[in-house]
Design brief:
This protein is mainly β. 1% of the residues lie in helices and 44% in strands. The chain has one helix and 32 strands.
Amino acid sequence: MKTRVFHFFLLLFFVQGAMAQLTSLGLVEEVHCAVKPYAPLPLLEVSDNYLYASTSKGLYRYALDGSDEWEQVIATDEYVSDFAVRGDTVIVSTVNQLYISYDGGTAVNTVTMERIYDGFLAEISIDGKGAGVGVHPYNAKHMYVAHSGVVAYTGDGGLTWSRIKDVGDGSACDLSYNPLDTLQIVGYMNNNMYWTGNICMSLDGGKSFESYGDGQVYIMGILFHPTDKNKVIAYGDIYYMTDGSLENWNRSPSADTRTLMDVVYDPYDPEILYGITATRVKRSTDGGFTWSEIYNMQGIATSLVSIAIHDRTLYLCTSDKGVYALDLTAASMSPLIEDEGAPVYYDLQGRKVTNPTRGIYIKNGRKVVIGQ
């Protein structure tokens, strides 16, 4: 799932503002959606025509059929750090507990992290991030729980657990199944103190894991392509894989992609993605290779922390003003070109090209052909 790491100084970024059509959906501090120091970030996710949001009091959902009320799905006594929804299956994790429900939240089984890790749990890192959950997309009894650099697995809905060794080292971690190929499991291990880490990956359903990045890659989430199992994006730093192998990850050449805190695919065009920095909404039109700004939230909220998408609406969770809906058909969708001088080209490996010759290049976030 899309667990991400919280760094409080990200909220101090200041950028110039722009306005577009927004609709407030509520879920403000009255239900404890506000970001707190050293606490997990609020998360958004759309499932079965509901918008789900994590808070310090549990998991809430908002019906996307015109309803204007949030309802609590699972109550917790601490911040939700990750969750997964698969039809009637709802799984929620916090620092100390895992909540599992197979009937939409009516009956909830609670499992302690001490039980999951059989007493072997690394010291919780200073950021206070809880456990990330990676749930099998077609069999919710199979899941990974990653906590403070330690990973555990269950194949029976949480009755028994086993530690997974050799996944990687880090104070923050998460693993996710590729819904198009469940033998492929991709995640990350980060050292939050130094903003370093690795991408970790299994191609055999979790029997073995390998790492990429030499400890210099900082990741906040994993995003799988909606139709191509071989394309995966790791964001925070933006790295993308296009051939299903661990060895071939390419880094985006766009400026400030290190601060991308959440990324989603456009449901109508897999070449288009939306991402957020602290106060800016960004868009990629070339599959995540390059990014440009389309909207700015300065003056509306202190920081953006999570996004989700449904139809032509982008949902934005803020640090202090609750959740907003951004109509993508009404917003100004023309990319903002920061450099109006000579055009800048990149090759398909992300390297800047001063004098491009015949071939395919990236210019202003789009693929162009030169020399035909």
